[in-house]
Specification:
- By secondary structure, this protein is of the alpha/beta class.
- The chain has 6 helices and 6 strands.
- The protein has helices at 4-7, 21-31, 52-60, 71-74, 88-98, 118-142, and strands at residues 14-15, 35-38, 48-51, 81-82, 102-106, 112-117.
- The strands form 2 sheets. The chain has a 3-stranded mixed beta sheet with strand order 1-2-3. A 3-stranded mixed beta sheet has the order 4-5-6.
- The chain is elongated and about 65 Å long.
- The protein starts with a helix and ends with a helix.
- The model has no long low-confidence stretch (mean pLDDT 92).
Length: 143
């Protein structure tokens, strides 16, 4: 079974909570991601997350100026996270049950390791199925 650490994107792309939503959107476009981890303000703080959906619903949809709204005004916090050793099947169920698209991957000592999305899991599962099918096909041709 594949583990979170096998599928996650690393490193996670982060942003400061004091950055503008405009800056967050620009980073998302430049890097091709749909969510950013919001950095902790202090060692004892929690990570946050801002996603394209937050920008659309909380800023654009309300007619606010993305250059004036700060990330920490619209982010989700604390961020939901998973362990790098968790089976991706469990992560997929968690994402589905919570209706989330992505979660942070946090290691020991609250270290941000990466981010995993439902799309990452679907791609990995499809790749695994194709690889298994190719093996079966090869075996049947050789036989």
């Amino acid at each position: 079974m594949l583990k979170t650490k096998d599928v996650m994107k690393k490193p996670a792309i982060t942003i400061k909570g004091t950055a503008t939503v405009y800056d967050a959107a620009k980073i998302m476009v430049e890097t091709g991601v749909r969510g950013l981890i919001v950095e902790k303000r202090t060692e004892n703080d929690a990570y946050g997350m801002v996603a394209i959906r937050d920008i659309i619903h909380e800023v654009i949809g309300k007619g606010l100026d993305p250059k004036k709204v700060k990330v920490n005004q619209i982010m989700s916090k604390p961020v939901v996270s998973v362990s790098p050793d968790m089976d991706i099947e469990y992560v997929a169920r968690l994402l589905s049950n919570l209706n989330f698209a992505r979660v942070a991957v946090i290691g020991e000592k609250d270290q941000l390791l990466g981010i995993i999305s439902m799309m990452d899991i679907l791609k990995a599962a499809l790749h695994e199925k194709v690889r298994n099918f190719a093996g079966v096909l090869k075996d049947s041709i050789v036989s």
